Amino acid sequence: MSTDTGHKCFIEVAAQPALVRVTLRGDATMDAAELVRGALADAHARATAAPAREVVVDFSQLEFMSSICLKTVLTWLGTVESLDPGRRYGVRLISNPSIPWQKRSIHALASFAPGLLTVDET
Amino acid sequence: MNAPPPPRGRLASLEARLMAVTSVVLVLASTTLFLRLAARERSNLIAAKASAATMVIELLATELAAAIDFGDADDVSARLNALRANPDIVSAAVWPNSNEPPTASWSAPDAPALSAPLPRDGDGTTSTPGWLIATKTVVGPRGASLARVRVAFTLRGENEAYRKNRLQLFWMTAGLTAATAILLGALARRYVTGPLRGLAEAASALADGDLTARVDIRSADEIGDLARAFNVMGKAVAFRQERLEREVELAQRIQTSILPRQPSVPGLSCAATMIPTAEVGGDYYDFLPVEGGCWIGIGDVSGHGLDAGLMMLMTQSIVASLVAKEPAASPRDVVCVLNEVLFDNIRNRLRRDDHATLTLLRYDRGGRVVFAGAHEEIIVYRAAQGTCETIATPGTWVGGRRDIRRGTVESSFQLGPGDVMLLHTDGATEIRNGHGEEFGIERLGAELQRSHDRPAAEIVENLVFAVGGWGTVEDDVTLLVFKCEGSS
Q1: Of B282, B400, B407, the CB nearest to A74
Q2: For the domain that residue B325 is a member of, what is the CATH number?
Q3: Based on the domain organization, do B265 and B414 belong to the same domain?
Q4: What gap in Å lies between CA B16 and CA B10, rounded to an integer?
Q5: What residues in A contact B438, CB-CB < 8 Å?
Q6: Please, which of A44, B11, B100, B398 could form a disulfide with B339 given CB 3.0 to 4.6 Å?
């Protein structure tokens, strides 16, 4: 699935062997919250149906993320944590620290789910 | 903001489609009508000619009966030749009853060659596109058949008249069709597309914020029903908008009235501003003077609206209570307890999933600043070096998890005489110019460095001017400046 929001935010969800990859590009402004929510729900459905070992969320080309979209990511992380241990999958964030919002927020985000979430920096 | 209309093709508008369909139906109907009328016109012309031809040939047959009965061939020829005077007659011939050559005949140039009528051919007329041929049996005085006569009439005059009439008929039909199409188009515009266009314009105006947009359509048909439904909807939208604006106004009052006024901390000159956006934002800041220093809080609740304002109010109350109970508390402990209370209120009572960035700082009179909680980086202008440094605020956000002790750390730094500390929310750094470029923390630091020697209130004014001049404010902007008194 891929979604283009007027060339501002591009989201792609792709299932690969044993993992689901969510790639975000552009600016995830307040308007993109529903799209982010939809993409993460799609990734969650694919990861639990497959089942996948890991969901990779690639933020490395995402220039901006609003607090509403960040909240959506947090809610999704809470959903993953609440799964039975047998169905729970890992989450790996790929971040680009040269982008200001990621420098400020990714580690705070990661600290929300320390046993679940890892961060790779490009 | 309205979504742009989809690209419209030539026949995308209802009016154009109605006109196209009506025109096609009218053209088909008028063509059928034209063909039928034209056929009837030709049929009438030929019928009139046939009637005249019958009269002529019956008269001729009567005249020939006596001549044939007496065997006077010259009289037969003479009577047949007398027909030449009639310009409509182009040939004539008389045959005896048996299959023999005609006893008399004549034919004009270009006239059809007349063939002898067969026994099965009855009396009467037949027509071809150019000719009308009349056939008659010549009957003697005793009722016996003496001969058969045939006369060919030209249809040139009828065909000419038919062509003229057909042209007139064509223009009449075309004119009638065009007039009907124009009339139907005008009726469709008046009763269908016009009112629909009015409704679309009113809907656009309503979407653009004109809450008084209504339509004046009083017809009793379905479009009238639609117009009345639109007007009812418009009133409902206006009512809800007004109620929402009242709620937003109330929330803004809550948000701004809880902000500290004229903060005063010994040894520290302070100034702050918050520029809220049209909706209620979630920015929070507070100064809480305590014995030996003060507590400073700054944060940003995820999202906007009443819930964000409510969460900000809760944060302020919890921090104020905890600090009042223990002024020398560890900022990390305060943040962690605050988080537990917020988490319970947000998740279990409000049933929301909000969170907030928050950094709590405890300033001690000697210049030491101890802080905890994740928010934006702190910018400090160092008077001794004449440069700005940024200090990260590591940790985690509040309200999202019950226990954040593991991710919450406490850090500290020292402020010296003349140093200026700037706290801000992301609205100040994420504001974008026309090229989509963020103002950024580097520019904010540079502006602080440029105005560090002014009073705290002027520094804030300068920063607001710089940030506001960069682009359109789309998120709350909060700026707090603390300047250590004395000089390096």
Answers
A1: B400
A2: 3.60.40.10
A3: yes
A4: 8
A5: 64, 100
A6: B398
